[in-house]
């Protein structure tokens, strides 16, 4: 099958969405499919990239490190037609996503959508939440998603959100998988781990608590910092390592200074991708208080690296951490330090058998297989159920048939 991905976010932009798309492309190609990415221009992008089509874009409002496609419909359509695409998969509700729907309509092929971002968690970025309200998000997403053939939900939380919004098209929960080989690495030696801890000023007998994510307000790293003093009361040797970059770093550093934690909290900034597995392996526990996740790639990466998680719970994490030896969840921000301390005291051990079972569930191979199955079902569904297609995707004769059917229903009443 020839598939076109339409996304506003892709490398060299670093994000969970970009990683998810790259992983899916590679897995589908392993299964014999052709995948082409239609995405934004980027000043840091290479001049020539195989299978990638870049369309004119500008920085996104309030997210200057993200971009949005502003034009290129005819350009994208001509290329998509030349490539003879058989299915389009949109990964954004904005610029490139809209273009993807328009191209899909003109080519008369199914359009699958993945809902990656819980926008209600990000409204504070737009005029401090005073302009765009949750009800605006609901109506916009319902309109956009319902004009697709099917929707991929990375977690059960997304399914519940889609239903609350009034989405009526077929849904499928497909968690994003990860490349297990990048994190379950026997080549990472104890010497490498100790060298990293030494660079961070952390001795072998000290607890290393790791936070790894984009440094933004909704990631709620401030809760971890605010309660770290309580962790130190029981474990004065503990050290918090905050990995990542983002707009809230300065605010977090100010908070650390106010709480007089500069000696025990380390900010590393963004680190090279190849070093991420070593940070996981060096940590004693991975922590997160974020409630904005739809697909927790970092949680899966932590488990694949063999580090236990203490994180704020949601439907995805309840399924992921289905054994107490993998980690623990807490419900409210106030419970973070108490949950972490309790989990440290219980000293659970992650066995290789348990880890192996979980790795199969979160693997990129499973991700690709599940997505391929959904594509095939939705392709057949699109062909066999023209009445179920969005009005805009029906051929003129089909629109007439739907109209006649509707009139007959009215006459029967």
UniProtKB/TrEMBL annotation:
Entry keyword set: Transferase
Tagged with keyword Transferase: yes
Domain of life: Bacteria
One matching Pfam family: Glyco_transf_4
Coiled coil spans: none
Domain spans labelled Glycosyl transferase family: 195-352
UniProt xrefs under SUPFAM superfamilies: UDP-Glycosyltransferase/glycogen phosphorylase
Presence of keyword Mitochondrion: no
Domain called Glycosyltransferase subfamily 4-like N-terminal: residue spans: 14-181
GO terms of molecular function: hexosyltransferase activity
Descriptive protein name: 1,2-diacylglycerol 3-glucosyltransferase
Record organism: Enterococcus florum
């Amino acid at each position: 099958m020839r598939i076109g991905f339409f996304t506003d976010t892709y490398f060299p932009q670093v994000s969970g969405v970009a990683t998810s798309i790259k992983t899916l492309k590679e897995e589908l190609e392993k299964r014999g499919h052709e995948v082409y990415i239609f995405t934004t221009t980027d000043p840091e992008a290479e001049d020539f990239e195989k299978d990638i089509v870049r369309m004119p874009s500008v920085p996104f409002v309030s997210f200057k490190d993200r971009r949005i496609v502003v034009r290129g419909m005819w350009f994208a359509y001509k290329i998509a037609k030349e490539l003879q695409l058989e299915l389009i998969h949109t990964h954004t509700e904005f610029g490139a996503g809209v273009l993807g729907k328009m191209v899909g309509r003109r080519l008369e092929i199914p359009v699958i959508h993945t809902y990656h971002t819980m926008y209600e968690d990000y409204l504070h970025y737009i005029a401090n939440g005073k302009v765009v309200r949750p009800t605006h998000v609901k109506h916009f997403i319902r309109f956009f998603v319902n004009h697709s053939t099917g929707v991929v939900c990375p977690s059960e939380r997304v399914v519940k959100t889609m239903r609350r919004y009034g989405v009526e098209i077929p849904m499928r929960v497909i968690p994003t998988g990860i490349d297990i080989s990048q994190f379950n690495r026997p080549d990472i030696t104890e010497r490498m781990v100790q060298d990293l801890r030494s660079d961070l000023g952390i001795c072998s007998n000290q607890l290393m608590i790791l936070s790894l994510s984009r440094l933004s307000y909704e990631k709620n790293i401030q809760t971890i910092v605010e309660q770290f003093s309580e962790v130190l009361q029981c474990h004065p040797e503990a050290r918090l390592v905050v990995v990542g970059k983002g707009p809230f770093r300065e605010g977090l550093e100010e908070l650390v200074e106010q709480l007089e934690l500069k000696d025990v909290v380390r900010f590393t900034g963004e680190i090279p991708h190849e070093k991420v597995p070593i940070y996981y392996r060096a940590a004693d526990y991975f922590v997160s208080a974020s409630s904005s996740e739809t697909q927790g790639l970092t949680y899966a990466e932590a488990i694949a690296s063999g580090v236990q998680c203490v994180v704020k719970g949601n439907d995805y994490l309840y399924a992921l951490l289905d054994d107490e030896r993998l980690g623990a969840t807490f419900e409210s921000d106030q419970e973070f330090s108490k949950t972490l301390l309790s989990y440290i005291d219980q000293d659970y051990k992650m066995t290789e058998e348990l880890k192996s079972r979980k790795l199969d569930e979160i693997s990129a191979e499973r991700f690709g297989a599940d997505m391929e199955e959904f594509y095939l079902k939705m392709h057949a569904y699109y062909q066999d159920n023209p009445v179920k297609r969005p009005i805009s995707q029906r051929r003129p004769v089909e629109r007439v048939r739907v109209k006649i059917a509707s009139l007959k229903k009215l006459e029967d009443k």
